Write the structure tokens for this entry.
Amino acid sequence: MKAWNEFLSTRKIEPLQAVNALCSLDEHGLLYVGGDDATEFLQNQLSNDIRQIDATRSQLSAFSNAKGRMIGLFRVIAIEGGYLLLMPKRMLPIVQEKLQRYVLLSKVILADISNDFARMSITLDAYRSPPENDWPLDVEAVHQTDSLISLRLPAAEGRSRWLLLSTDAGEAIELWTRLSEQVIVNGPEHWRLQNIDAGIPTLYPETSEAFVVQMANLQLINGVSFKKGCYPGQEVVARMQYLGKLKRRMYCAEIDSDRAPRPGDELTAIDADANDGSGKVIDGIALGDGSSRLLFIARIDLAESGRLKLAEQPDAKLKLLPLPYAFEDAG
């Protein structure tokens, strides 16, 4: 994809915009899982039911350790001969190495094929029609041609969002050129902001193996199946779902600071003098207007009573924002 990378290096990036923007996903990579046993292998490792997707539908899924803590979180796309797992590039070697430990005698191939695809995303106001007639309309639906995968993604406030993956650099450049005539071009922070607004967590090395799936609201966004068979950490996840009481969950918030919190930054109780393990930032983005938006996972009692602060910015007040889905125990 040398031609694609060279093309992107010449593109002008506009200030962050919430909607009607196109962005490259070069900060994200693709792990290929293929081979005769690929489906069974992923079914035995991931939180979601891989049998529920095919070439026309994707899913969010997590890979956890034996204690139920998520090692990685990614979107799974079925393609001919295997699956693509989309995740931040920094996470890819971590997930690949730990998945490889489970391959053993299975006929499974794991490979980083990020360089084989041009990757981009576009977000539009709800009233805008898809720029291309063959893009899917249903959330998580997928349309595939010989060289292009278009995928409708969940988005907040009714916004329309698509993920586009192309194996043809020339086609990708033509598509980008057409789309950039209709919307502005943003940097990768646009993709991250859309995930924050949609309440979709992203794991980075700083937060890998820190949370059980329910803490990240995966049970509310179709990221976990409680009916499938065993997988690493499944007993912990099931016990929390059916027998335990959730004490931490993920929230969206804004702060009056243009210094965006970073993944893994600590949250503490307001009256704490040192880090007390009350919570961690999942991701944060500066909005360009003196404020920042973030997702964080923290103790429910502290978050919902307004008794949390950022350890590194204790004077930046957290203002909780509504997520596009309801908590299970709401009301």
User: Anything to note?
Assistant: The CA atoms of residues 132 and 175 lie 9 Å apart. DSSP finds seven helices and 17 strands in the chain. The chain has two domains: 2-198, 247-326. The first strand starts at residue 21 and ends at 24.
